Amino acid sequence: MTNKKITCIVIAGIFAAAFVMASCEKFDVVGKDSVDSFDKVLQQAPQSVSADPKNGGWSLAAPDKSARFIWSRDYTESPLHDVMIEFDAAPFIAAGLDPEKLPEHIAYYDGMLMVGRKLGDKPFKYSGTVSPITSYEQIVKENREAVGYHGALDHYGVNLGDGNLFEWAKDMNTNDKDIVFVLNPAPFIAAGVNPEKINGWLFAQVIVDDENGKAIEVDKILKPFNLR
Question: pTM of this prediction?
C-alpha cells in the first residue's frame, strides 16, 4: 500500500460518517458543546485570532497563515459572507488554476481565494461583551443548522456551502487534527487545477453518508493543522 493511499485512508477516517447535522433532540448538546470546544480552540491560539473589519467579523488564521476561517460579528455588517474561509491562491495557480474559470461563488482577489455563505440579515442581539466566541455563539443561536458534528473523531464544524467546511476538534487533547479547512475540489478541477499538485493541501477520497444514509466516497481538498 502506498504512502499516499495510507494518508488518504487516515484522512478519510477523520471525516468518516460525513459532516452530518445533529438531530433535534441533540440540538442543545451539540450547540453548546460546539461553542465550548471552539472557545478552547481560540484560547489555544490567541495570536491567530483577530478582528476583521473588512469582512465584518473575526478571523482564526492557520499556523502558517495560508488560510483563515472568518465569521460574522453581525449579519448586518457582513459585506459578502457570514461564514467563510480565505486562503492563498498561489498553490492553486501553480497547480493549474485559471481564476477566470472559477464560478461566481468563489471569489479571487489580491492573491487570495474565498468560499463561504450568507446565513441571514438579522442583527445580533448581544447580552454582554461582543467577542469572537460570543459572535460564534450568536451564529449557533440564529443558524443552528449550519453547525455540524460527526463522532468519528469528535469534530464540530461550520457548513460553508457547496461542500466546503471548517472543522475543529471537540477535544484537542485526544485529536491530532485541531482544525481542518475542507474544500470541494470540483469547481477547482473545472478551472484547471490538478488537485494532487496543490502544495500544502491534501487531495483525498472521504467516506460520507449520502441523503439516504448510505456510505459513499467523495473527493475533498484538505488542510489540517495541530495547534499545539
Answer: 0.86
CA–CA distance from 201 to each of 45, 148, 153, 183 (Å)? 21, 23, 20, 10
Q: Count of residues for the chain?
A: 228
Look at residues 111, 105, 119, 126 and name the one whose alpha carbon lies nearest to residue 184.
105
How large is the angle between the packed helices 27-44 and 132-142, nearest 10 degrees?
Answer: 160
H or E stretch including 57?
strand 57-61
Range with lowest mean pLDDT among 28-32, 57-61, 93-97, 106-110: 28-32
Q: In this structure, are residues 148 and 119 in contact, taking their beta carbons and an 8 Å threshold?
A: no
| Three-state SS at 117 | strand
Question: What are the pLDDT digits (tens) for 184-227?
Answer: 999 999 999 999 999 999 999 877 666 776 777 889 999 999 99
User: Which residues, other chains included, contact 141 with Cβ-Cβ below 8 Å and sequence gap of 6+?
Assistant: 31
- The residues spanned by each domain of the chain are 3-225
Q: Residue 181 and residue 154: Cα distance in Å, rounded?
A: 16
Q: What phi and psi, each to the nearest 5 degrees, are found at residue 27?
A: -50, -55
